[in-house]
Amino acid sequence: MGGYLVISDSIGDRLAAEAERLPRARARLTLAVALVPALAALVGASGAVVPRFGYGDGGGGSSSVDTYETGETYVTTEVEQGVVNEGWTLVTVTGVGVRGEGLVLREVSGARLPRAVAPGEELPLTLAFDVEDCGAVRAKPPEVVLEVSRWWGSSAVTVAADELDGPENWVAVESACDSPT
């Protein structure tokens, strides 16, 4: 029997079964590796873990400019700006703030807080500011920051601006700086 190896049928059957399982196991592993990032992206986009808010419709704004006896100019402005829950789950908004240089948030009105905001629902806000540095406000529009809570805890969420210059109603802040003194 020069050079031939004889394998019994039972051993041949077991080797064939192992050979079939190996590609299936690789296929399952490849599928799992591909699905994990896709699932993570879907959960992130849903707002289920990290709430997502965007700017809604705004009602406009108003501003006033006062001059003190010292000659210092004092600019105040009020912006009506709604924010929309862009996630897929209910979020409770417990506070509102603003992140930006050159202004101080004086008052928030328009909605009683805390307030549960359903997916797609708009939370109407009126934000009153004292503008301290018009140049800084013009350089970078302020961002609205919401304090939100869920059953597992609370976090701060920055409202996403669709436009690079911020929502259209922030023009009231900039126009207050352009007003004659």
Question: What's the SSE blueprint?
Answer:
Elements: H1 9-46, E1 53-67, E2 73-85, E3 91-99, E4 103-109, E5 115-117, E6 122-123, E7 126-131, H2 134-139, E8 143-150, E9 153-158, H3 171-178
In short:
With 181 residues, the chain is α+β, with helices and mostly antiparallel strands. Helix content is 29%, strand content 38%.
Name some characteristics of this structure.
181 residues; 5-stranded antiparallel sheet; 4-stranded antiparallel sheet; alpha+beta; 3 helices; single chain; elongated
Based on Cα principal axes, name the global outline.
elongated
Instruction: Kindly state the number of beta strands.
Output: 9
Span between N and C termini? Answer: 110 Å
Q: Main sheet, how many strands, which sense, barrel? A: 5 strands, antiparallel
Question: How much beta, percentage-wise?
Answer: 35-45%
Order of helices and strands: HEEEEEEEHEEH
Stretches where pLDDT is under 50 for at least 5 consecutive residues are none
